Amino acid sequence: MALLASLAVVVAPGPAAAADGGCASFGSSFAPKQIPENGSSLRVGCARDAGDLRSLAGGDSDLVLALDFDPTRRPEQMRGLLMQTARETQADMARGLSLSQALELRAERHSVDYYSEPNDVDFDGSVRVVGTSLVIVVPASDVGTAGFWDGLWKKLVVGAAVLGVTALSASLCLLAFNVGAPAAAPVCGAVSAGLGGATGELLSATLDGHPIDRTIVGNAIGTAIMAAVAGALLGELLSYVNLEARPLIESVQEKLGEYAAVFTRWRTPLTALQNLFNPDVAKLIIDTVRRLSHGIGTAQAKVLPLGDSITHGVGTPGQSSYRAQLFTALQDDTSSLDFVGSQDSGQLADTDHEGHPGWRIGQIDEIAGCTVARYRPNVVTLHIGTNDMRDAATAAVAPARLRALLERLRKRDPDMAVLVATLVPSTSGSVNARVRVYNAQIPRIVAEQRARGQFIRLVDMGAVTTADMSDSLHPNAAGYTKMAAAFHRAVRHVLYSPRLAAPVAGDPAACGGTGTPGTGSPGTGTPGTGTPPEDGWDWQGTITRPVGATRDEVRFADLDGDGRDDYLVVDGQGAAKAWLNVSVGGWK
Asked: Please, what are the domains in the chain?
């Protein structure tokens, strides 16, 4: 079985590499190469040499990278998988991400938490499908000379590897099942997601000179696959892995040799990685999946839902947020499950949380240290920053504030799993523009913290659209359902990690609280210093229609202690229209 990690690359850096630093550095050869049956190859170079692919580029010096596949069986199925891969990447870019950020996000979605090295190189471009080829184009203006090989080149190659291994391994997996087998699609989705994530991180580590061994390779791949599969399909997964792991590893080992022979610049690390792919690794993958399957339902989880009004549950009558469905979903994954926090809202078995309506990142940062000390969660689900997006000034500093919050959590407990969500969208044009800019930076912030030793994962909320919003800021029931599904996938992943520690008792005296932490009962004390939200902003409930504005036009209210409530009224594009000052009592 040939995986993308096994791509037969047909070009090598030519003599111009040192001086040019642009597309010609790749040797710029698009000569056709015979592709192994059901395998793949890679072509890369200047658009001027790309033949029929030249029309996809804007200029002759644009960089073109083509992942070519030869699906001798079920070619339409292969094309469908490639189209799905391209559409997902294009959708991320439509949300405001550059090509490199979209590739980073894809890698983060399927991270195995083994290795992450932040890379400041950013480039744009496009992803398309031509026949059974996945084609990436990077404009010449983004192919600079500074840090070319260790920056853009590494990120592009690793990103392409994640794209290709996901598509190819899914296709090959489907071939192993009988046509129409009901378990094929979900099992192959798990296999392809796990292999994509593991391949990306192992390749990144190898190219950056970090040592890995056979145990790491086997455990990383096995854990990644296991974390992605649904429990009901476990039997099918075990059967598939038991039959296919050995030929899979043999193919990877063979093709890594070709990889090393072509990329002479990195021959030593790639050869070292090749030598690790042997029958011992196949056995480790099988053993890892079997071991983790026996542990299903035995993990102990103490979860701290942390954030603002979205965590609280504003937007639906029951105010259960994503928490109710997440709690229900985790019942089968854990032997002990407890949601903790000083707040209490929603209609579920355990209503504790730490969601503070109206709060910004900085305010959550103020209480984070003592809240963790009080409850000692081993999992934190974090969705924060929506209120920071209300104006350009606070949005501009939001990434720095997120870094500070995550750093505080890391210093408090680096082995506490922190699941950082991208923000759901806003129906306000101006607010949503800021959300898109902020979300584009979160994958890199998460990668930075992982490189510092934090147990952290990105949770992409891209499935939530403006159609899933109850107002300009808060999801409706459908939106919260999508949030719960995204958080559930992430929590399941960390439950399988050997790094997840069993929860321990918290300190009831922390934050001045008087409740009993970690028991499922909400505490009665208020965590933190008692500092009110910045600038006097607060949230009091559902706004009734004030005189002079419709409900949809009201975005925020400033309770400044003058006995009157100040409403910010906006137009349909989110631009400020007027302030209204009305008597207290405009709430219900």
From this structure: 4-294 (no CATH), 299-531 (3.40.50.1110), 540-583 (2.40.50)
